[in-house]
Each structure stands twice: as structure tokens, then as C-alpha cells.
Amino acid sequence: MDTITVEKRNEQLKAKQLRRKGIVPCCIFGGSLPNSISIQMEEKSAEKLLRKLRLGSKIQLKLEDQTIITQIKDSRRCFADSKIEYIDFQALDPKTKVNSLAHVILENAEFVTGVLDKMLMEIPYASLPEDMIDTVTVDLEGKPVGTIVTVGDIPEFLSDRIDLQVETDSIVLRITEKRYAAATDTEQAAE
Prior knowledge:
By secondary structure, the protein is mainly β. The protein has helices at residues 15-20, 43-52, 179-190; strands at 2-8, 23-29, 37-42, 58-63, 66-77, 84-91, 98-107, 115-118, 122-127, 135-139, 148-150, 163-164, 171-176.
């Protein structure tokens, strides 16, 4: 699990002022915390964090003398310049189930001979923090046209420690015939 150092937010500066100085305002809430904690981190650290991890990813935040286990719950970027406006972290209680997302990573997609239809690339679930899943990998090498992968086909989601929030027969992806080839065949048949 990744660890990132953060500091308490400078309450004397507004969020806009912090962003102008290259600092991203953040918040930690939930879990066993009695109140939310306003924090801040350098923009470079925030960019690196969101490049490497996703919503639902588990991360440790080092704040002064304490370490808080959290998940990335939300983030927002500015529409105009794509800079991070804020990141929200949810503190995790080891004895309480938490809602999260597992991201589906496709491996060897370049070997797919048909059209790859991605249907459900984020799988919502609930689990205890120790059982959280950040990503699952689906290897597509050798998968023929007509292949359908459902949530139930991914072994990580068959654990009794994971409470899926979608049906196991929900389609994650499918491989169909190339459409332009079918259109060409139809045109040739019409002639």
C-alpha cells in the first residue's frame, strides 16, 4: 500500500489561494475519525498520486505523527486547465465494510481480432479494508470473436469476503465481429 505525506491545511488561505501556490486542498472523513480533517498536499504529489492510483484505491496518509489508512473517495479537476481542484479521502475502520470500486485492467487487448466492447470497467463492491481490491486483470490473448466476460468470470469477485453491488451475470466486456467487414459483405450480397 502506498504512503503519502500530507499536512494540515492552512485555514488562513482560501482554496483558490492554495491552488495558486501549487497546493491541493484535501479532506479526510469517516471511519473512526470524530470529525473530518482538512489537509493539503503539493500539486506534484497529487498529480503523481492520481496518475498511479484511482478512485477506490487504498492509501496510507502520514499526517504529523499519525498514519491514517484511507481510500481515495473523490477528486475533481478544473474544466479549463485540468488541474486538480481537490481530493477527498475516506478513513477506513478495519472492522467496518466500505463501498469501493475495483477497476478492470485489460491485458493483451492488441491481440483481439474483433471489436472489443467495454461495458463495465469499474465494479462496485463492499468489503472490509483488508479485503479491498484495487484492480483486476483480464488477459485477452487468444480470446475469439464471440467471447463474453461477466463479473462472475473474474475469480477475485467470487470471494465470499466481497459483497458485489452488481449481478454476477453483468457483462464486463465482449468481443464482436468487425462491423466494417459485415457491412462490406452486405453490400456485396446486394450487388
